[in-house]
Amino acid sequence: MKARAVIGANFGDEGKGLIVDYLCRTGGEVVVRFNGGSQAGHTVVTPEGLRHVFSHFGSGTLYGVPTFLSQFFICNPITFFREFQELHAMGVTAEVFAHPDCLVSTFADMIINQRKELKRGDKAHGSVGIGIHETMQRSAVSELKITMSDLWNRSTTLPNKLAEICDRYAKFRTGAPIVEPKMTEAFLKECEAFAQLVHPAGIGQCKDPIFEGAQGLLLDQNRKEFHPHVTHSNTGMANVRTLCQQAGITDVDAYYVSRTYLTRHGAGPLPGEDAAMAFEDTTNLPHPWQGKLRFAPLNPFDLARRCRDDVGGEFKMVLTHCDQLEPMCTADLYSYGPTRDNVRGWTDRAKKFN
């Protein structure tokens, strides 16, 4: 059995969904989400013009490829059903499986996340506002932890946990409780429906998986130089290695994805940020929690170095947005050719570094 892993090489928004979609069209059996949660925004457009921005579902869904949510994925019934309805309206259905240990986000995590981010003001972390970090923080308290296993087993403690989270825990995190009885009632119903639609499975049942990463290497929780503007997740090969070891997979092709320039959607440093750089992007529109997409030139040698350091061996480099290369290359920080004809030379230099 062979695996392929698609990993963002930068701050996210590199085009991972595009590559996962391509790999699924050339023989993918199952897409495995190996980190993060539904804060992802992976755009896929089929040759027939069908377009969707994936967040909870894998980016092979338009071709009927099932999704497996590994134990490193954070499930969110609220965002799941939003996306489920969007796909259903397009006439798209696909199976979704999950590991019993997947953490589950609640509406309270989302509210706490948004309260804290608003309070930070101009020192915002750049959160998407759907409670990924808050879910991780809360789940460190065993009495408040909620997993897919709890949903499938219809745990009788779930209402009490929600009450505790909305009351004392919300006070602890934000200074005020969350008094939303209608949200609590609706969320409990969503959890029950979510448990019926998503089926239990393990990585060992996934044949020839395509691992789909979220965010990018520069947002990894271990990138100390960018704290606190990172994600609470391992964005590189760490989780993939663990899953492959569990499944007995020894053959993994790593595909690192990058635009031909750097982007960052959200607060935090962007090395070489250039306000004069601007590219059309119909997916990453101005966001109430992350602001607008920012741009900077890309150093191909830094790019190759971080991919090599992450994988520890050979890897495949995938460049997207190459049609935007020519205007991007006018930036002073580029040390290689200003014309589209030099794309091959630009990538060859990166390959030699490896």
Question: How would you describe the overall organization of this protein?
Answer:
The chain is α/β, with parallel strands linked by helices and 354 residues long. The protein folds into two domains: 2-99 and 201-264 and 298-353, Adenylosuccinate Synthetase, Chain A, domain 1 (3-Layer(aba) Sandwich); 104-199, Orthogonal Bundle (Adenylosuccinate Synthetase, subunit A, domain 2), CATH 1.10.300. 34% of the residues lie in helices and 16% in strands. It has eleven helices and 14 strands. The protein has helices at residues 16-25, 77-89, 107-120, 132-139, 148-152, 158-174, 181-197, 238-247, 300-311, 325-328, 343-353; strands spanning 2-8, 30-33, 42-45, 51-54, 67-69, 74-75, 96-98, 103-104, 198-200, 209-212, 251-259, 262-265, 293-296, 316-320. Strands 9-7-5-2-10-1-11-14 form an eight-stranded parallel beta sheet, sandwiched between helices. It has a two-stranded antiparallel sheet with strand order 3-4. Strand 3 (42-45) and strand 4 (51-54) form a beta hairpin. Helix 3 (107-120) crosses helix 4. It is globular and about 55 Å long. Mean pLDDT is 88; it is low at 327-354.
